[in-house]
Each structure stands twice: as C-alpha cells, then as structure tokens.
Amino acid sequence: VLENGKNLKDQIMLHQAKTGLSIGKKNYQYALEQVLSALELLGEKPPQEVDLSKTVSHVIENLSRQIHEKENHSLLQPGHCTDKKTSDVMILLCDLIKISRLCKSKAYEEAATVRMMSICLDSGYTSQYSTSFAHYGAILMERALATDDLDLAKEGYRMGQISEKMARLKSLYGGHSLAIFHHYISHWRRTYRRSLGQILSIYNAQLESGDYFHIPFTTFTYVQYHLASGHNLSKLDDNLQLFDALYQDYKMDNHWTTQLPQRFVSNLLGETSDPFVLYGNTIEDQNARIDQMEKAGENDAVQLMHFLILFNSVLFHNPELSKSCLEKIKKENVSSIWKPWITFFQCFTDIVSLPTIEKKVEKRELEEIINRQRDQLLDWYDQGAVNCSFMVSLIDAEFMVTDSAGKKSVPSIRIKKFYDDAIAVAEEQELTHMEGFCLERASMRLEAVGAEELSAEYMGKAHDSYMEWNAIAKVDDLEENHATKLQLAKHASMKMVGENYVRQNRDMRYNPDRAIGGGRNLKTINIEKIAKKAGKVKKIALGKSSGKSPRDAPKGAGTSPRASPRRQKFAISIKLGKNEKW
C-alpha cells in the first residue's frame, strides 16, 4: 500500500493497517491518531479533545429531543443505507470507540457514539446500527446515575431495547452490542438470572466466530452476573477455569478480570483459609499487591478487589472491614451492575453501626443519611430496577429492629414479618445467596428477642440456602458459630416430619388393646334382620315396595317406553366413548 497506494481507499486501508498493528503492540495512543486521520480523510473531523465534553453534552441534548419524538416502531424499521462512504465512516467510528476504551478516553468514546447515532437517524440501517444504540443507551444510563435523572435512565433502557432487538447475535457488531446492553443497561429492569443465559450465548457465539477481541468484555460481564445472581458457585468455578485457559492461550489483556473472581470463588468454596484474602496467603501479601497495582495504574483491578472483599465482609458480618472497603471504593469507577449494591452495602453497614454511636446529633445525622440511601434505592425500584427490591426490604427490616434498640422490645412476630418480606423477594428472584443472608439476619434478630426456636428454624433454612449456593465456607461458618441452633433446627424438623406422618395416618396409630393374629371380638350377626333387609331391597329393585304394581297405572302416566336395542347400543357407545351414529 505504501508503494502503490494513490487513491483515497488505499490511504484509508493504510491507516487501518497501522491501527491494527498499533493495537497489537499496545500502542493505543498512536492507534487513536491513525483512526482520527482516517476519519478526517472522509470528511469527519471531531473537535479537539479538550472541547469534546461540552460539544458532546450539547449534541446529546439535541439527540434526546430528536429521538424522543420517534416511536419505537420507526426506530425498529429504518431504511437501509446504501452509501459506501457512510458505511466506511461507521466502521471507523466503531474502531474509534474501541480504541478510546483502551486509551481510557471517555470524551472520544462519547463523541464517536453520538456521531454514529446521528448517522443512524439520518441515513438508516448499517451493520453498526445496534452498536450505536447500545453505546448511546449506556451513555444515557451512566449520566442518569450520576445525576439521579430517572427519566434519562428510562430513555437509556429504551435505547438498549432497540439495540437488543436489532442486533444479530452471530455478527461481529451484534454480539458485542448485546454484551454492552447487558453490562450497562439490562439489569436495571430485569432480574440477573434472566440475562445470565443470554450472556453465555453471546460468549459462545463469539468463541465460534473467532471474535477474540470482544470475548474478554463478555466473559467479565458474565462473571459479574453470575456473582450477582447467586447461581451455583461450582458452575462459575468451572467456567472461570475455561476463561483462564483462554486468556493464557491467546495472551489477552487484563487477566485480573478472571483471576480475582477465581480466587474469590475459591474462598467461598472453602478451598482457602481466609475469605478476605484475594491475593497471596496473608493480608500483608494482598496489601503489597494492591500498592503495586495502584502504582501501575491498574485502578479498575484495585476497585474490583476492594468490592469483592466488601462483598465477603458483609456476608461474614465484619462491619469494620466493610467500612474500610467502602472508604477505598470510588463509586464512579464501580462496574454498572454493582452500583446499586454499593449503595445497599453502605446503607446496611451504616445501620449495623448505628447502635455504637452515643452522641444524639451524630446518630440523627447518620439516620438521615440512611434514609437518603434507602430512598435512592426505592426510587430506582419504582422506576423498574427490580433487583433493588430485596435490598429495600432487607434495609427496612434491619432499620426497624435497630431503630427500636433501647426502646420497647419488638415482638418476634413483627420481626418475622419484615424479614419474611425480604426472604420472599430474594426467593422469587432466585437470589439464593441473598435468601440465605436474609434468613441468617432474621435468625440473629430473633435470637436477640428470645425467640430461640424460631431463630433456630431460620438458621437451619439459611444453612440450606448457602449449601444450595455451594458456599461451603459460609456453611462451615454457620456450623462453627451456630452449631446449637442448627442441631435444634434439625431436631425440630425431624419432630415436625414425625407429627405430619402421624397426622396423615391417624388410623395406623398403635392400639395396645388390639390383638394380632386372632382373638378379636366379633359382633353377633342377626340373620333374621339381615334377611328382612335383603327382601326389602329386592322389592324396591322390582318396583314392588309400594303396594301397587306399576303396571296398574294408566298408560302414559310417568312411564317411559322401553328402549329399543339400537338406543341401548348408542347409550353404551357414548359411555365407552364411541361416536357411532343412529
């Protein structure tokens, strides 16, 4: 191309070749320059990066008004773009988004996205149509969360739905569009379990087509969904081993996206001694590794590590460690799927620490913060964020009990009702891990008010839920710290089974007066009485019970004609299910 390229097409091919080589060498900044140069050759010259933020915000406002006027059916049935130059521009803009994500250049990523959306609205359908809507929906969703603009979140979800319906799973752009949709958008309106299988289908399609560039993002999204949904940890462990081998074979970047979850899952499976250590053998090893990652600029990896430690600190009731992790986590850098969880964990940790605060002013201030966090979760739920429902229910239960501390004791039946609401929601959404956690918290609260048997029952159910999740470390934790409760729950369960058996088989209860093998007292049979009764039955059957015979009655008075053989045959046929005609 360098020797013979003379026309525009050859020059663009040259820029694309240099871009691909630069990405291979991880020289992302040079790759970004090459894509911008290629776009400039086609008449697309974006403003300087320093001016992009204001420009993009202005364009998004105009786009929002333009798209808001369009109904879904018009966006789902666009005309087809036949202009080759426009298709080339869309390809380069997709490359710009890809490289901007590698360069951490949010401004260029958003600028490319809004330009693609403008082209889609003006020129119609191209292969990148679904990609444009997916990225645009993700931008709207992120801005909505940053500003608490729920209408913007609703519009972001609508854009995501358009992308989902227009995407072709097995195409290069379609599979990644769906992965973007699930990573940033779908969990705001759908349960985690509903999307889990779909993300695995995207991964399989990408693997089959050889789209190894987009596979890391899809696998990372799948892992987050699996953890959030509380699906079987053994299955996740098997998949993580496959992903790990794939990363090693193809020398993929950001290996921490599989390594950290793999260690986290191993901790929960009980294969390690400390559930809070994700690197090395001690806390010191882990802290040294975190320092190295921070100096190397691996901030996303550090944030994920702090979040996973936070997850286990809440699960294993370590509020001090939870506070420490929450202080280190930057909420704006948390993966989209975990943003509600951060608010939930912060609110839960604040509630747990509430009884330790002695000053009334500080306590009142913390209660106000808790209420604001709770209201935010409730607002998200009211706008369709179904996965926030168990969070709100559990926070209500915890706050109700904690707020009553030092006052009049809360009746156990009231505690049971509040926690049962949270348990029911978690069970309905198949969040096995959170169902177990709600049951465990209910047991602890019921024990505090002296409801020992009820507390034991809930602890036994929590043990079963953690076992179903396959979190052996948590199962061992319950068996070690609540052995008496679990034994009581087991005994009560066996007793209940025995009582139910007896209730269902009352006639089979032991009768000490009953003789076995003969000797039973039989009543004396009155042969004369039985013969008289038999004769009476015989007369009724023959129509002779009244002193008159039916034949003495006038003709046609209450008697029916004798059925003909054909009619008798039809009646029997109907009874047997045969449809014979007269």
TrEMBL record:
PANTHER family: HYBRID SIGNAL TRANSDUCTION HISTIDINE KINASE G. It comes from the Eukaryota. InterPro entries: Hybrid_Histidine_Kinase. Residues 539-582 are annotated as: Disordered. This is Uncharacterized protein.
